[in-house]
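hi support,

uploading two proteins for the ticket. first:
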Amino acid sequence: MVDVFLMQALTKATPDCAAMLIVGDIDQLPSVGPGQVLADVIDSGAIPVVRLTEFFRQAAESRIIRAAHGINAGKMPDLAAPASDSDFYFVQADEPEDAFRKIVELARTRIPRRVGLDSIRDVQVLCPMNRGGVGAQALNAELQKALNPAGSKKVERFGWTYAPGDKVMQIENDYNKEVYNGDVGYVADVDPDLGEMTVDFDSKPVTYAFGELDVLVPAYAATIHKSQGSEYPAVISPVMTHCFQMLQRNLLYTGVTRGKRLVVLVVLVVLVVLVGQKRAVAIAVKNASGRRRWSKVREWLAPAAPLAESAPAARRRWAAFHAGCTKLGS
C-alpha cells in the first residue's frame, strides 16, 4: 500500500542506526500511488526476505485459504456447493439484476441468520467497481433502504440520505477532525436544529456540519480498492463479466481475503460469499496483468544485493535503498 513517494519520505526520516522491518503481501493490489515498492524490494535481492508459506491446521481446513492460494497460482477456486458448513460460498447469478437481489438478501437475512452476525456492522459488500448495476453506489442505496430505512430524523445532502445507524465512510483526510480516507463509522445522531450530524468512529464522536457531508458516503458497500488493509467478519463480493476491465487476479484475491472473524477461543472463521458468474471468476483468475507496473526501484537496488552481512554493508544497502526511492520520487 506504500507508494514510492511515501517510502522516500519514510527512508529519509529514518536514522541510519535504525532497522526497518517491512511486512506485506505482494499478491494484493499495488499502491494507489506510483510504483510497487514491496515487490521491487523483494525482486531486487538486496534485502533479506522471509516468506510465510506453511499452512497450519486451522488454515489448511479453510476453503477460503485454499481458494486464495489457488487464485494466486492461476487456478480456479472450488465453486461447488460444500457438503457441510463452510467459510467460502459461490452463489450463481447470471444477470446483474439477479446478483443485486441476491446480495441484498444475503446481507439482510441469510448471513445474519446463519452465523449470528449484525447485518450492518459485520457484513461488508465489496465490489470491483464503484459504478454500474452491481457497483458500490447502486448497492449502497439499496442496502441502506433494506438494512436501515430512514425515519423522520434524517438529513439529505449531496445525493445521499443519512439517518442514525447508517454505516458511512470518510473519503478525504481531515487532520483537524482526525479522521482519514477509508475510515468507517456509524451515524450516532442527526440534529436538524443545529445543522449537524455526529458519526461514531471507533467510539470517537466526530461532528459534521451538514455542509461538510460531501466527505462522507454510505459504506454498506465499498470498492475492493477501498477495503485493502481492512478485514470484516463476513464479505459478499459480486463478480460479473459486465465489469470486464476490473476482472484481475490480484483484485479477486484481495476481495476474497478481506473476511475474518474470531469466534470461539482460538478458532478463526472466515466467511466469504462470491455472487456472480463462474466465467467472470475464471477471467479474473487468469488475468494477471494488474500486477504489471514499470518501475526502476528494483534495478537501482539490485547492485546492493551481493554485499556481505555486516554493519557497514547494511548501511550501504540502506543507502542504496534510500537512493533508489529518492530517484523515483524526484
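and the second one:
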Amino acid sequence: MNLSSLSWDQEMLDSFGVPKAMLPDIRSSSEVYARIKEPALKDVPVAGILGDQQAALVGQTCFRPGEAKNTYGTGCFLLMNTGDRLVHSKYGLLTTTAYKLGEQPVQYALEGSIAVTGALVQWLRDNLGLIQKSSDIEPLAHSVGDNGGVYFVPAFSGLYAPYWKDNARGVIAGLTRYANKGHIARAVLEATAFQTRDVLEAMEKDSTIKLDALRTDGGMVEDDLLMQFQADILNLPVVRPVTRDATTALGSAYAAGLAVKYFKDLDDLRANWAVDHIWKPNLAESKREEMYCLWKRAVTKSFDWVIQENC
C-alpha cells in the first residue's frame, strides 16, 4: 500500500508481479465491513480492523501528535502518533499508518521494534536458572543497589530499531569479581529501558516532537523497578493505565464502537482511559547520562560479531 495515496502501489505490484484484482479492498480502521451470519452472533457487525500495535496505540488513546505508547512483552513495540504528517524516518524507524477512523483523515505513526526484552527475563530463567519464575527477577534485582557497572546487550539474533544490525550478538559488559547474580538481574531489566530510550530518541529526532510522557502496557509493566528506571533513564514520566493487559483488544473495540456509534467521539474514548500509576524521574542528570553513555559503549561491543572471514 502506498502510504500517501492509501491505495495499492502500482509500481510495487508490477515489481512483484501481483495483479491488483487479486487484492482486497483497502478500507478504514473503523466502519461496518460485514455482519456475522453464524446464528450465535447473527447480525453482529464486524466494524474494526487494526494491526496489533496500532490497536494498542488506539487503546492507549494516543490520538494527538507526539503521544506515544510502549508495549512491554517478549519484545518491546514503541509507537508515536505523528498526526496527519507522514514522517519518513532517517534514524532507523518504520513509518506506518496508525489508523483511519471512518471518513476522518488518516493518522500516521513512527514505529520502533525491540527484539528481546521480556524474552531476556525468560532466558535468565530457562537457560541460566538464576530465577525460578519471571516475577523473581524484581526482588533479585532489588538485592543490589545498582547494576555494579554491568550492562547486558541482548542482541541474540541481531539488533532491531534503531540499529538494524543482523550480525550483532549478545554481550555482557563491565563484569568484575564484584559482580553477582543480582547485578546481572538488574542489568537484564535495565536493558529494556535503555533500548526503549534508543528508540525514543530516534523518534524525537524524526518527528521533531519532544515527548512529555510515555504510556505503557504489557506484562512487564507490573515490575515497579523497571518502570521507575524507565522514567529515570528517559527523564520522563512513565504512565501505567488501569487497563494494561488487553490494550490491543481494547483499541480494536474502540474502533468498532466508534463505527456503530457506541462511542460518540475521541473525547469519549479519552474519558474511558484511566491512570493506575505514574513513575516520575528521580535520577541525577549526570548519573543518567553516565549510565546511558556506558550502555551505548556496550552496544558497540555487540556489533559485527558474526563475520564471514576467518578470525
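thanks. also noticed: The chain is about 35% helix and 20% strand.
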